[in-house]
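To start, an entry.
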Amino acid sequence: MKLSSLRPGDHSPFYQTYLDYLPNEDVIDLLKQTRDEFLYFLDHLSEKDLKHSYAEGKWTVAQVLQHLLDTERIFQYRALTVSRNDKTSIPGYDHDSYVPASRADGRSLVSFKVEFELIRNSGIALFESFDTEMLTIQGNVNDSNFIPLAAGFIISGHQKHHLHIFKERYGL
């Protein structure tokens, strides 16, 4: 299913900024394309880059990478939960509290690459397992309507958003 399949009310308007980074392509194709783009980006980082922050008090590259991994896992969980017709209202999460708890600045570049590829490939397999009904079933995430299809696009758009920030603010 393509990005144009999403309708108003399929996700919180907050995520539109991320979706605006994406072309109107199939969700699986985008997950694969953005996986490859991100692995290319990671291949061009150095261990020294991981410690870089563009301003005092801003996240380091390592912390942003960990944020991307954590967020991807959370959106995969959201998609899985809703696709299985679980009517539990899924709460939001405080991404700012995850960063210091993650101890991302102690990680190696190789560990980020390995984990990212595993998480993304697992997510691709998850989305490939969904049929149209599973992708479009309505659930509730953070007090907003939400369909699993939106999660796949949000994952790719969130990644592109941070790649843009890495380029514009971090100079990477």
